[in-house]
Amino acid sequence: MALGGGHGLAAALTAWRRLTRELTAVVTVADDGGSSGRIRREMPVLPPGDLRMALAALAGEHPRTQEVARLLQHRFGGSGVLAGHPVGNLMLTGLTEMHGGDSVRALGVLEELLGAQGRVLPMAEVPLDLVATVASTDPDDPQDTRRIRGQVAIASTPGRVREIRVSPADPPVPDAVLRAIAEADVISLGPGSWYTSVLPHLLVPRLRQALEDSPARVVVVLNLEPQPGETDGFSPEEHLGVLLAHLGGVSLHTVIADAAAVVDRRGLLSAVQGCGAELVLAPVAAPDGAPRHDPARLAAALASMVGAR
User: Fold this and answer.
1) Is 256 helix (H, G, I), strand (E, B) or coil?
2) Segment holding 181, helix H or strand E
3) Which of 35, 54, 154, 207 has a CB 3.0–4.6 Å from the CB of 25, allowing a cystine?
4) What is the pTM of this model?
5) How far is CA 23 from each of CA 7, 95, 152, 178, 202, rounded to the nearest angstrom?
6) What is the mean pLDDT of residues 28-55?
């Protein structure tokens, strides 16, 4: 099972599918920008963008299903009302409306069309808003903070995030998500936008309780570099520290980090061992130097962690 959103979750799913077909993605539903933001403002549905990306990452290998996946990802051009909308966002929105607002059922239809090697589920049954407390960038008033609402606004606001929460505070979670967590052998968090894609799963009470009760091995994949607007200047151990502050009773077993991205290996190892986990340092970044995880390399690191071959 993989938790997250956006490109980070897609990277994790692309790696995991090399190891198993019994794969479930639990996807954040707090996106309020771009096509997803436009749709959620006009329709009573979940923002479809991150769900669409997860579906495309799990599409089957047959040329026909790959063509459908490319269609889902295709964005309309031009300057009209459809400009910028990915086809898949509109398809998922239409299917949700056809099925009386049942997003899980709508996702199931697209999974069949894609021959998906796994399942995609939303982390909540209603759209979420993220609310962050952001530190001031004014050197004359470093204690000043601002409250910022919305994923896009949080990511684009200068200053470090000190606290983040979801609204509504206790949203309903699909039963299918709770069952999947209870049955999972391994649960991965990250990579991805730390405050807006990874941490939200730990802020939903029913979701976090299910994670606390789960017997699964929990693995965290750290980002390759800080994200502008969210984690400027964060070291790998600072990323981990923020996560640990939100884990509550969720056990952490393994932390995977790119060997070349870690400057202070002793500091990271100390932080990992301090929470009773093991550290896996491996070359998981793309070999061309781009700041993205390579699916084959990440799959190898995950395989070594779970004992797969």
Assistant:
1) strand
2) helix 175-183
3) 54
4) 0.94
5) 17, 23, 29, 14, 20
6) 96
